[in-house]
Design a protein that fits this description.
Mean pLDDT: 77
Number of helices: 4
CATH class of the largest domain: Alpha Beta
Largest sheet: 6 strands, antiparallel
Oligomer: single chain
Number of strands: 6
Number of domains: 2
CATH topology of the largest domain: pyruvate carboxylase f1077a mutant fold
Helix content: 40-55%
CATH architecture of the largest domain: Roll
Shape: globular
Radius of gyration: 16 Å
Structural class: alpha+beta
Strand content: 25-35%
Order of helices and strands: HHHHEEEEEE
Length: about 150
């Protein structure tokens, strides 16, 4: 729990920084969320650190690389994508490429919300990246990355 407090304090301090980029902010938010989830699942420092690492990677991709167009495409994939069938797009403004393979929807036993996990492969500035994300419907029916 000590490490979790340190991670959250760092996230708070960096989020106050006016010079943080979208990617840094996304990575920090992802690290915090990942650390919380890792701690909740594993109840140990190792799980917290793994959760923070995974959250950082996902947060960086979403925060830094995905603009509004990409987030809309990702939301469409969560909403209408056929399970295990890849949806792909190229951002017309950035040239970044995304391939998303959604998995079947399920009901989260803790929140009772409908959630869906997806594998995201991206080519950003010519560099391939791969991560997994989970999104759940909020009370308004919109998909929110977890």
């Amino acid at each position: 729990m000590k490490y979790l407090s340190i991670v959250l304090a760092c996230v708070f301090l960096f989020s106050l920084s006016s010079c943080a980029t979208k990617g840094q902010t996304g990575a920090l938010g992802g690290a915090a969320a990942g650390a919380l989830i890792g701690q909740a699942i594993g109840h140990n420092t190792g799980a917290t650190l793994i959760g923070a690492a995974v959250g950082t990677m996902l947060g960086n991709i979403v925060g830094n690389e995905m603009d509004k167009y990409d987030r809309e495409q990702l939301n469409h994939t969560y909403e209408r994508g056929v399970s295990y069938q890849r949806s792909a797009w190229v951002n017309p403004d950035t040239g970044n490429q995304y391939m998303v393979s959604p998995q079947p929807a399920y009901q989260n036993p803790n929140t009772s919300r409908i959630c869906r996990r997806a594998e995201i492969e991206a080519i950003v500035d010519g560099k391939p990246q791969k991560t997994y994300s989970t999104a759940c419907r909020d009370e308004y029916g919109s998909w929110q990355l977890q």
